[in-house]
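Reviewers of the previous submission asked for a worked example of the structure-prediction workflow described in the proposal, so we include one complete record here. The input consisted solely of the amino acid sequence. No template or homolog information was supplied to the procedure at any stage.
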Amino acid sequence: ARSRTWNQPLIHRLGVPAHLFGDIVMPGTVRGKLKREIAEEIGLTDEVDVIAVGSHDTASAVYAIPSTQVDKSRCAFLSSGTWSLLGVEVDEPILTEEACRAGFTNEGGVGGKIRFLQNITGLWILQRLIAQWKERGERCGYDFLLSAAESADIPSVIDVDDKIFQNPVDMEDAIAEYCEAHGHPIPETYGEVVRCVLQSLALRYKQGIDQLNRLLPAPVEQLNIIGGGCRNSLLNRLTAEALGIPVYAGPVEATAIGNILVQAIAKGEIGSREEIKEFI
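From that input alone, the workflow returned the following structure tokens.
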């Protein structure tokens, strides 16, 4: 992880064929040219470079985080979608036992950075609820549900990472079962169910930030929520209230923007991300 190379001794020890592990290239590396037939199909006449972008969609998204007054090392990110990826960008991996026990991973980022993050269940639970309500022909528009959750008042919270919520036959029943087993009031209305899920996510994000603060040299001062989930204004507000630090939402299409940025820098069309961070 520190040298950004394959662990060849481990590969050899496991007896895995070494040829399966290709060359590691950094984001921004030109890998070749787009095939002529593909270029013609999408209406391009000039030769087009194929450029390695972020190693993962989250890496591209993190690269598109807007400029702020807070030092980057103290600005956490939350890529919010079906899953939540919560972490910070660091220069070197954090490989302590405590980080491992807390479920943090070190993943390659753009510009040689490391994305030190946790994988958390995100809006998956809400998505499954909406899908099953639709199947039953019930009213479950997103705006309606968030409005109902805004006015709901229920103290119940669930552990969103509990295996009971991974892929239950009925997500609503799974929430009721969890609440009953843990002595919490069982949500009964649409609003109460959604409110329970969203405030549980906000508290899980607080837990993640608390764990980050124990592992970093200085505490996190700001959270940037990016991706499709940043449009959930109620979840954003509940998260800000739980964390007690500023929370910024957007951009929604962070992955696409970060992808384009890496390509633009590789082509020399902009000098660095810093040139247009105010624009983002």
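The chain has ten helices and eight strands. We consider this example representative of the routine output the project will generate in years two and three.
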